[in-house]
Amino acid sequence: MKRLYIAILFLAVAISLCIFEQYTVTSAYKEATQYLNTAIEEVKKEDYKSAKETCENLSSYWSEKQKFMTAMIDHGALDDTSITIYALADLAENESDDLENELITAKNQIKSIHDNQKITFGNVF
């Protein structure tokens, strides 16, 4: 009977971790995408000061979420996305022509992470 309880406990812990991972990735995706959409609009309006603030806020948010996601996600994809995100504020400060392209790249990288972590038949098997 003790083995059954241990198995049930293990299953409950595993399911809880899966739910936590899905929540963390989905909330990070939604929030980061909002920051990126805001920054893209600010760049289109040529408001680089506001874009820099938005990118700095995104960097802070991402570094906070990255601590949890590092334990759950492929480090290669996460590291590439982090490098892109952390470079955005510098590009905005220098009013770089590449800023909008890098914002779109970061948005695509985050979407890729989100899509690869979703619980789907293809991702499970």
- Rounded mean pLDDT is 91
* Model regions low in confidence, pLDDT < 50 over at least 5 residues: none
Total strand segments = 0
User: What fraction of the residues are assigned to beta strands by DSSP?
Assistant: under 5%
Note down, in words, how this protein is organized.
The chain is mainly alpha-helical and 125 residues long. It has five helices and no strands. It is elongated. The chain starts with a helix and ends with a helix. The mean pLDDT is 91.
Features of this protein?
125 residues; mainly alpha
Blueprint of the fold:
Layout: H1 2-44, H2 48-69, H3 75-93, H4 99-117, H5 121-124
Helix pairs in contact: 1-2, 1-4, 2-3, 3-4
Summarize the structure.
The protein has 125 residues and is mainly alpha-helical.
